[in-house]
Write a structure and sequence with these properties.
The protein is an alpha/beta fold and 577 residues long. The protein folds into three domains: 2-174, Alpha-Beta Plaits, CATH 3.30.70; 189-324, ABC-type transport auxiliary lipoprotein component (Rossmann fold, 3-Layer(aba) Sandwich); 482-577, Alpha Horseshoe (Serine Threonine Protein Phosphatase 5, Tetratricopeptide repeat). The chain has helices at 16-22, 24-45, 65-82, 113-124, 134-140, 171-174, 206-221, 231-234, 244-251, 295-309, 330-344, 348-364, 369-384, 391-408, 413-425, 429-442, 447-459, 463-476, 483-494, 498-505, 513-525, 529-542, 548-552, 560-572, and strands spanning 2-13, 49-53, 57-62, 94-106, 109-111, 130-133, 148-154, 163-168, 189-193, 197-198, 226-228, 255-264, 267-276, 281-291.
Length: 577
Amino acid sequence: MHRRLMAILAADMVGYSRLVELDEAGTLARLKTHRLELVDPAITKTNGRIVKTTGDGMLVEFASATDAVECAVEIQRRMARRNADVEPERQIRFRIGINLGDVIVEDGDVLGDGVNIAARLQTIADAGGIAVSQAVRDELAHKLDLTFEDLGEQPLKNISRPLRVYRVMLDEAQATPVSAPALGDGGATSIAVLPFANMSGDPDQEFFADGLTEDIITALSRFRDLLVISRNSTFVYKGKAVNVQDVAKAFGVQYVVEGSVRKIANRVRITVQLIDARTDRHVWAERYDRELADIFAMQDEVTSSIVATLSGRVEAAAVERVQRSPTSNMRAYEYVLTAKVLHHRSTVQANAEAQRMIEKAIELDPKYAHAHAWRGCIVGQSWVYNWCPDRDTAWNTIVAELATALSLDDNDSDVHRILAAISLSRGDHEAARYHQERALALNPNNDLIVVQQGEYLTWVGKPEEGVEWIHKAMRLNPHHPERFWNHLGRAYFVARRYPEAIESFRHISKPDQFHLAFLAAAAAMAGDPAAADSYRRQALALDASLAVEAYLATLHYKRTEDAAHHREALIRAGLPQ
């Protein structure tokens, strides 16, 4: 047993018993999902250690008060965004209390007055809010860009003396989220495809089931009259028992597709159901039992049946069908499916394995256009994140693979999406426009293509239109990557809407020097020199060599006035030229 100064975070779920009584399985599943996807990663990222958990709460230790508050703020702000489209009575919210004090450490547990105070602070925090002791508030001083509201001295249960308590002001959580109306509130017919269950009894077939689901999502996305939720969002429910109506409410969709896959040797059986979530009624169901070689025909049948069955709202025959270039080599197809799933994991190891899988596919079928396109995308991921040992070689590979894919099949949306991005990086706005328009025509519901349309419009001087497209991408993918906020913040900045730009960039949990430079520029133009100076200092602390002209050379503005506006803002913020 020994004593140590540490920050203690106590968290508890609001209304746990009521929510469990209302929907036990759904509540526990959603709580587990929030833990796995948000809470635990946030704790790890801020160097915390979970000391103990209860069914609806936890106690976490941190070496510093700054880490503890950063963790709490990230959890509460992101939970607020996750709850934006959930009915109030079903929302999962946490109360968090944080104290900095002397604690007793014994056999991995923490005890003492410092722990008790954190637990009591949690009980008086707002639902979705954070309450901290004066010790925490004084320790932070001006280390974080946060405001603290003084709640005065508060009596705490079983604590002999009143303590001064502060509320962390979470403006982002309290503000109306940047989003459009729910998808089911009119407009395009909307649909979510849940991950197909692997019924083969073989864990290795998970790649096949996931890849097949993704292919069906992609095929449905090609129909302009359908609004299809992205793969990244629906795969949150992979492996979970779900209530279809809860899924529909979470995504704001009218219809849900669920199914299963059983692959044995060279045969595959697919069961598919289309459900009207508003009535919880099966609109259509079918089972396909075929040779694996018929997989593309099965996908086309599933897609056209779903579209044609949607209460006559979409005429499948009236929509131009985009022909893919399928392979006759089923082993190559399976390698591509595996590579795609690995690519989505976005880690160094997964990327390396994805490259190995996609190269096997190309070895088996050198004329498989989609495989070449995805090799360009996978190598592109390693190039963007600097995971490749030779960036020049990687770049040449990307260009060569996309050129090959384009020569084999001009109707692959991924080819045009990546070519548009490459053209922008070269400053060729006309080529970027052509490929971006082709990508959008081929797959108008792909969130990556849609958000890239917003990026493109921002670079060519149409930021207001860009904002609209980025919002659409966020609706298509409610669990979109954080970088979507970067695109939105840039669009608002170019549109001279500085407060919205700052609000968008502040959604980024770990801003790099470029995000901070944008924040400094926006704050300077908004007339807040103190904030601009703070962001400038943070940016230079991350990269002391950051300079205005070198930074501007990496950007892709088409209009000289937009580049000049950005230069003026950076200089006004005090960044070195």
